[in-house]
Design goal:
Layout (H helix, E strand, L loop, with lengths): L6 E10 L3 H19 L2 E8 L3 E10 L2 H8 L12 H4 L8 E4 L7
Antiparallel strand pairs: 1-3, 1-4, 2-3
């Protein structure tokens, strides 16, 4: 029986609508793919608005310890990708780390 995720790590960022497709490809290649190799599950969400696009990446983990092996000693510390400053309208200063208290389908 596969373990269920107990922790969700949530990152948010936004870019201009004009660069959203380019950033999406970059984020997937350099941010999401490495997470897919370590996390139990990963979701990348996108909302396009008139002038900007919002991205949310959610990774699911069996424990804070497992997440720390990937994200470092402080899993709430943000790890910017090399070109995030080129794309994002502002650099996020943190991620959320939440306990999953109810879940269905993941």
């Amino acid at each position: 029986m596969q373990a269920e995720p107990k922790i969700a790590r949530i990152w948010r960022g936004r870019t201009s609508r004009a660069r959203a497709d380019e950033y999406h490809a970059y984020l997937y290649e350099h941010g999401i793919k490495p997470l897919e190799e370590k996390a139990m599950a990963v979701q990348l969400l996108r909302e396009d608005r008139d002038a900007e696009s919002h991205f949310i990446a959610i990774s699911y983990w069996e424990s804070v310890e497992a997440m720390s092996r990937f994200a470092g000693k402080d899993p709430r510390r943000i790890h910017h990708l090399e070109r995030d400053a080129d794309y994002l309208l502002e650099l996020p200063d943190s991620v959320q780390v939440l306990d999953i208290v109810a879940s269905s389908g993941i």
